[in-house]
Amino acid sequence: MKTPIYDFARKYADSDPIRMHMPGHKGVPSLLGVESLDITEIGGADILYDARGIIKESRENASRLFKSGASFYSTEGSSLSIRAMLYLILMHAKSEGKRPLILAARNAHKVFSSASALLDIDIDWILPKSGEGLISCTVEPDRLDLLLSSYKHEKPTAVYLTSPDYLGNIADISGIARVCRSHGVLLAVDNAHGAYLAFLEPSMHPIALGAHVCADSAHKTLPVLTGGGYLHVSKDAPEIFFTHAERAMSTFASTSPSYLILQSLDLANDYLDKNYRKDLSAFTKKVDVLKKRLSETGYLLIGSEPLKLTVSAKSYGYTGSELADILFSHGIICEFSDPDFTVLMMTPESSEESLERLSEILLSIEKRVPIDTAMPSVGTVKRVLSPRDAMLSPACEIPIHKSVGRILACESVGCPPAIPIVICGEEISEDSVRIFEYYGIKTVICTEKN
Ligand SMILES: Cc1ncc(COP(=O)(O)O)c(C=O)c1O
User: Fold this and answer.
1) CA 3 to chain centre
2) Which CATH code fits 278-364?
3) Distance of CA 106 from the midpoint of ligand 1 (Å)
4) Nearest CA to ligand 1 atom 10
5) What are phi and psi for residue 410, nearest 5 degrees?
6) CA within 20 to 30 Å of 83's CA: 15, 67, 116, 119, which one?
7) Which DSSP letter does residue 407 get?
8) Interior CA angle at 327 toward 326 and 328, to 5°?
9) Domain extents for the chain?
10) How far is CA 255 from CA 41, 75, 114, 241, 250, in A?
11) What is the CA radius of gyration of the chain?
């Protein structure tokens, strides 16, 4: 597969031009060493969101690989693609003369709620089931069917899911897509953790399974520089998704996209096209063996995502953070940990030895008496102000123990993995205070007056 962006930048660097343009390093490799390839939108380099040349050619390669109707690059992660998805859903609703309303699973990354607030899109939340905690929110097709049937007048414009979630749970996207289509509702998926799913046999990528649009972080699971991502639009998405996608991305994006990230996305096309499917298949088998060995030793592993290993740590007698600390002391750095879970992410780039070492350390940890404290449930939520009004109100920071009854104005205190406990405009309840305290959050930003 051709790599037109990288080829252009390489040729430009090799021609040793006098760079009377940005960036300020002028291609001189004095700090990082890669400056000569770090260009900007000069003549011939195309324009990221008005692409007609090398970027268009490259992203069409990506679209072929991901079997989408069209794919667009992000140099600002899934965060940018999620904002653009919401903008497109809003445009679609408006073009149909509808009020923009999204039915969304509550475990959405905070960029979803902040962008919805800025765009003034209404959200109806699907709450996690009791015992699911904050990070997961299972939505089965039947449950969704009932929920969508309960709208008597106007249905939501879209259903929004996070799949895979941070713990590695994957939703039944094909079943959910069927339900959405039967109600005439769009399906948008935050697939930040699942770009690689397109290369499994058969594909488990949301676009292959019927989503209309999705956001992928290439950098999370593919060998792409941090910030690299995609917005994928399915072949049967509404026309406005194709005609307005660049506009949607550029509404939120920097006007100085990183060409290092673009080159990384461009080179990834060729990489993914060559041996990646085979390498991925071989690697997932190794991860399966590791998972099996750990389960047999007494570890409770959750989630079905092939490249994620999530330990439900309390059943082994540790908190997730304690397990992460032990691994850290042996030079193994986890993706995420909290009181309940330790999450490790691996890819075919992870060496055989690194898997062996991980296995050796985990197997050497002694099983203890299980910790039986349950994670707190989200409970009921009470919306007092619109998220937009709350987010744009004067606000002040207050200690958690004084926050009951106050209205949240900023989700910046969402615990890792950036899933808000309370959404802007919602009243903080005693239940939410318990959750904040459980995750060690000490202050919140609330509107000045209720
Ligand atoms: C589920 C989920 N969605 C979206 C994002 C945002 O992705 P990015 O960091 O690529 O902007 C993240 C980041 O961790 C995430 O975990």
Assistant:
1) 26
2) 3.90.1150.150
3) 15
4) 77
5) -155, 130
6) 67
7) B
8) 90
9) 4-271, 278-364, 387-447
10) 9, 11, 21, 21, 8
11) 23
- Choosing among 3.90.105.10, 3.40.50.920, 3.30.1490.10, 3.40.50.300, the CATH entry for 387-447 is 3.90.105.10
Residue type, 407: I
Return the bridge partners of 341, or none: 312
Domain 4-271: which CATH number of 3.40.640.10, 3.20.20.10, 3.40.50.300, 3.40.50.150? 3.40.640.10
Structure tokens at 126: 């699907």
Phi, psi (rounded to 5 degrees) for 214 = -155, 160
What's the token pair of residue 62? 């990506």
Of the candidates 105, 64, 84, the residue with the CA atom closest to the CA atom of residue 199: 64
- Cβ-in-10-Å burial (0-12, 13-18, 19+) of 31 comes to exposed
In order of 123, 202, 290, 315, the CA distances from 293 in angstroms are 42, 25, 5, 16
Over residues 209-260, the pLDDT tens digits come to: 999 999 999 999 999 999 999 999 999 999 999 999 999 999 999 999 999 9
| CA atoms of 112 and 222, how far apart (whole Å) | 23
Question: 241: closest CA among 158, 156, 174?
Answer: 158
Backbone angles phi, psi at 97, to 5 degrees: 70, 30
What is the pTM assigned to this prediction? 0.97
Tokens 């039967």 correspond to what residue?
A: 182
* CB-CB contact of 293 with 363 (8 Å): yes
Is residue 246 within 8 Å of 49, Cβ to Cβ? yes
Q: Is the CB of 339 under 6 A from ligand 1?
A: no
Q: How many residues does the chain have?
A: 450
Q: Write the pLDDT tens digit of every residue in 164-223.
A: 999 999 999 999 999 999 999 999 999 999 999 999 999 999 999 999 999 999 999 999
Q: From residue 241, how far is each of 1, 80, 121, 237, 248 by CA, in Å? A: 26, 15, 17, 7, 9
Shortest-distance Cα residue to atom 14 of ligand 1: 417
The finding on whether 417 has its CB within 6 A of some atom of ligand 1 is: yes
